[in-house]
Backbone:
């Protein structure tokens, strides 16, 4: 649909606008896949979002996609609103003929990536909100809580092979292959990537193991693309959007994505010499996301677990340890793929000074390798901050910079 089509569509299909309404419509989509329109009645101020799925991705016509992803997104949002009330936008209508979803307009909110990268805003409640969302939507959709037949039926209903293939390619395969034409490496770091990523046999082996775990471990219903560009925020509220990549997979994929994208925000902040209070909040938020998730997951497990064998002493600790190890590995994969692969992030690409960007990328890639190779070591939030600080030290040392133990993390970036 074009703008005029969308205006006519909402007049005919929705009962939220009056017959004599004066509608304004604009296409606001900035993602890689779909078309997103905001429609507003000038007189009443009432507005909605119309999201339509096309048969190819906006990022590249190479990606041929089923429009069923719009059905999956709509149904997942409805389910997530039951599991984690108030943390996703309200769905008003899904239309399988036009492959579009009409939902609550969140224009009074800000995309988290924009708020962090452009505005350096602090959101004191974010860690609490996002960990509630992850603990509830992941654990409550898993075999330890759901009736096993119902869970298997849900896994079939949310089978999402085309979008899973994109993840398998862009996250788990292409960033580790130097002959891949879709990779987009920052030119001054090409030699570093060739040596540290393409040339690291151990790293590529671990990525292969993780790829097949992603493809075969139908653990819980994932959002599937839970980065800071898929989260709307205010100082008091958080809304998770765009679960079109949703499918049944390993819990750590969602958790690791949140952690990695907070690391991107942290890296940007240190590179541009952001104020100390903001950098400290980002570090504490990374810690809190890990630690609060563990606490909430444990409490929800005790309150909700149904499977008789899942109640065996020691099983909860075993299960959670595997989830956290996978989260660390996914955080590493996300760091690598956003720096090396096709779909980069503004946090890194907007670092204007070339030397600062070189250092920022090398620090994150160095930390990523440790997250993947030593994933079983990452149990608490402080472990992630330790990995970042150690990576700063290592990059500093390898590039011949002086390392004063009393120097701040901002100074480590060469500022």
Residues:
């Amino acid at each position: 649909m074009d703008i005029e089509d969308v205006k006519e569509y909402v007049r005919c299909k929705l009962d939220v606008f009056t017959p004599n309404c004066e509608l304004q419509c604009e296409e606001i989509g900035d993602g890689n896949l779909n078309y997103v329109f905001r429609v507003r009645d000038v007189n009443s101020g009432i507005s909605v979002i119309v999201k339509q799925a096309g048969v190819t991705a906006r990022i590249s016509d190479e990606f041929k996609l089923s429009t069923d992803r719009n059905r999956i997104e709509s149904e997942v949002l409805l389910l997530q609103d039951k599991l984690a009330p108030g943390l996703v936008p309200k769905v008003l209508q899904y239309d399988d003929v036009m492959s579009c979803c009409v939902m609550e307009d969140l224009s009074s909110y800000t995309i988290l990536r924009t708020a962090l990268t452009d505005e350096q805003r602090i959101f004191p409640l974010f860690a609490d909100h996002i960990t509630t969302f992850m603990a509830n939507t992941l654990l409550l959709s898993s075999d330890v809580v759901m009736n096993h037949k119902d869970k298997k039926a849900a896994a079939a209903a949310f089978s999402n092979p085309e979008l899973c293939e994109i993840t398998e390619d862009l996250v788990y395969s292409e960033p580790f292959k130097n002959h891949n034409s879709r990779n987009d490496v920052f030119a001054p770091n090409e030699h570093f990537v060739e040596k540290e990523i393409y040339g690291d046999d151990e790293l590529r082996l671990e990525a292969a193991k993780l790829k097949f775990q992603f493809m075969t471990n139908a653990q819980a219903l994932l959002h599937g693309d839970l980065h800071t560009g898929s989260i709307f925020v205010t100082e008091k509220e958080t809304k998770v959007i765009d679960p079109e990549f949703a499918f049944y997979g390993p819990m750590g994929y969602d958790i690791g994505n949140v952690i990695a994208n907070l690391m991107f925000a942290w890296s940007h902040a240190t590179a541009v010499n952001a104020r100390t209070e903001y950098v400290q909040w980002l570090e504490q938020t990374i810690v809190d996301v890990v630690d609060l998730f563990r606490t909430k997951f444990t409490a929800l497990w005790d309150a909700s677990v149904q499977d008789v064998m899942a109640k065996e002493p020691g099983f909860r600790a075993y299960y959670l340890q595997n989830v956290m190890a996978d989260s660390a590995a996914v955080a590493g994969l996300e760091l690598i793929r956003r720096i090396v692969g096709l779909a980069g992030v503004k946090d890194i690409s907007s670092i204007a000074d070339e030397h600062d960007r070189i250092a920022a990328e090398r620090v994150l890639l160095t930390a990523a390798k440790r997250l993947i190779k030593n994933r079983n070591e990452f149990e608490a939030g402080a472990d992630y901050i330790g990995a970042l600080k150690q990576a700063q030290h290592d990059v500093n040392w390898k590039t011949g910079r002086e390392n004063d133990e009393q120097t701040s993390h901002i100074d480590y970036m060469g500022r």
User: Anything to note?
Assistant: The chain has 15 helices and ten strands.
